[in-house]
Amino acid sequence: MHLCFNTAADYLEAAREMAVSGRSALARLLAEEAADRTSDPAEAARILREFPGPSERQED
To answer: Cα dist. 27→16, 33, 34, 53, 59 in Å?
Structure first.
């Protein structure tokens, strides 16, 4: 796994890897970031559907 996160695809790839390794909360956080970096709302929604669950984000 590479550690350079520049694009939505990078975050999505990491989310999938975390899901496979059983880290569902981290997978969801990475998926949320991928969705945020996606300009197409339909694609963002598809990404979030792939990683269901409540948001773990704690934003100020």
So the answer is: 7, 10, 10, 10, 18
- The whole-angstrom separation of Cα 9 and Cα 30 is 10
What is the Cα–Cα distance from 13 to 32, expressed in whole angstroms? 12
Higher pLDDT, 56 or 32: 32
Give which of 34, 30, 53, 52 is closest to 44, Cα–Cα.
Answer: 34
53: tokens are 């669950």
Size of the chain in residues: 60
Q: What is the pTM of this model?
A: 0.85
